[in-house]
Amino acid sequence: MKVLTTIEALRAELAPLRKQSIGLVPTMGYLHEGHLALVAAAKQANAIVVMSIFVNPTQFGPNEDFESYPRDLARDCQLAEQAGVTFVFAPNVEEMYPTQGSVVVQAGAMARELCGKSRPTHFDGVVQVVAKLFNIVQPTRAYFGQKDAQQLAIIETMVRDFNFPIEICPVAIVREADGLAKSSRNVYLTEEQRAKAPAIFKELTSIQQGQQTIAEARIAIEQATGGKIDYLTQLSYPDLADPTASTKHLVLAVAVFIGKTRLIDNIIWEVV
Ligand code: AMP
């Protein structure tokens, strides 16, 4: 496995390999088994796997955790190599954003739902960095987790709207044994908060199974975790609109602040 920090070096490595399939796994690092599931899916379908590791400043709001976001490139590279990644692309901020940039990609109406309500600029930053990574790597396929269901839906829309010749491949959420969705941000939780956090998925599941209403689950999650719900909503998926009689897939999505840590989770399912 090679670790490249410049666009030029990565492109030079990829140039002679372009006849082979390339799978891209975009991440912000601090890898866990969720990320590694994306690598496994990418390895299965592609000859070359590129993992990007970049904590993208443009997708963080002014009072968010960009500075404190956990980082450990040496450990990430070890895990990536064990998982079979071919190239890690780990640029710094100057490499990705040498200028302010005056042409922007905007995420559109879907970015105003769910996380967009409390993170109004987040998805503009996401589509900006993902569009750049798509142009830098020019992968055959790109892998995204359903953990970030709204991000996945917006990227699928961007690929369609901007004609990126890339297949977007969704990967199911990887969870801890107690149901908590794996996340780099779980390390922020105190032992006590971590012990309470599985209530999020437990209550989501019970709404999905018709055992309680969203309003009841909202109270149950706040009581069980000591946290504060940012949103708990059900929308059609992947268009993120209010469900109608013809809706085929639903997403039940939640964001909860436990102390300062904001955790998200969701269940996507087919209406029968
Ligand atoms: P991040 O490093 O948090 O930006 O995540 C990078 C990619 O890994 C995104 O496509 C995420 O949706 C995906 N991902 C993160 N956590 C999980 C998880 N628990 N299960 C599946 N995919 C995940």
Give a written overview of the molecule.
The protein is of the alpha/beta class and 272 residues long. The chain has two domains: 2-171, HUPs (Rossmann fold, 3-Layer(aba) Sandwich); 184-265, Pantoate-beta-alanine ligase, C-terminal domain (Pantoate--beta-alanine Ligase, Chain: A,domain 2), CATH 3.30.1300.10. 36% of the residues lie in helices and 21% in strands. A six-stranded parallel sheet has the order 1-4-3-2-5-6, sandwiched between helices. Strands 7-8-9 form a three-stranded antiparallel sheet, with helices on one face. Strand 5, helix 7 and strand 6 form a beta-alpha-beta unit. The radius of gyration is 19 Å and the shape is globular. The model has no long low-confidence stretch (mean pLDDT 98). It binds adenosine monophosphate. The site of adenosine monophosphate has 17 residues, from helix 2 and strand 5.
Task: Write out key terms for the chains shown.
272 residues; alpha/beta; 2 domains; six-stranded parallel β-sheet; 10 helices
In short:
By secondary structure, this protein is an alpha/beta fold.
Write the layout of secondary structure elements.
Elements lengths: L1 E3 L2 H8 L7 E6 L5 H13 L2 E6 L19 H11 L3 E3 L3 H4 L18 H4 L3 H16 L3 E5 L3 H13 L5 E5 L19 H6 L2 H10 L5 H12 L2 E9 L12 E10 L2 E10 L2
Parallel strand pairs: 1-4, 2-3, 2-5, 3-4, 5-6
Antiparallel strand pairs: 7-8, 8-9
Helix pairs in contact: 6-7, 9-10
